[in-house]
Amino acid sequence: MEWGCGVRELANAIDNLSAEDPSDIPRGLLAEQLIELHWQMARLQAQIARRTYVRAPASDA
Fold first, then answer.
1. How crowded is the C-beta side of 1, counted as CA atoms within 13 Å?
2. How does DSSP classify residue 11?
3. What is the pTM of this model?
4. For each of the chain's 61 residues, which pLDDT tens digit applies?
5. How far apart are CA 40 and CA 45, in angstroms?
6. CA distance 60 to 58
7. 44 in Cβ contact with 10 (< 8 Å)
8. Phi, psi (rounded to 5 degrees) for 48
9. Maximum C-alpha span of the chain
């Protein structure tokens, strides 16, 4: 996934969720949408980490 594409997909997913009334969405569909949003955010965070070379600190073991 390209950097700009990932940001656009995440923004679109957030916009789509915010435009809907959660009480009108079946619980199963709402859960699917929230899971997909979670995975899009995780993929974007991974891209940011790769592009900025952010790594977990080395353990002192």
1. 19
2. H
3. 0.53
4. 466 677 787 788 778 777 777 788 888 988 898 898 899 889 888 888 888 875 677 776 5
5. 9
6. 7
7. yes
8. -60, -45
9. 52
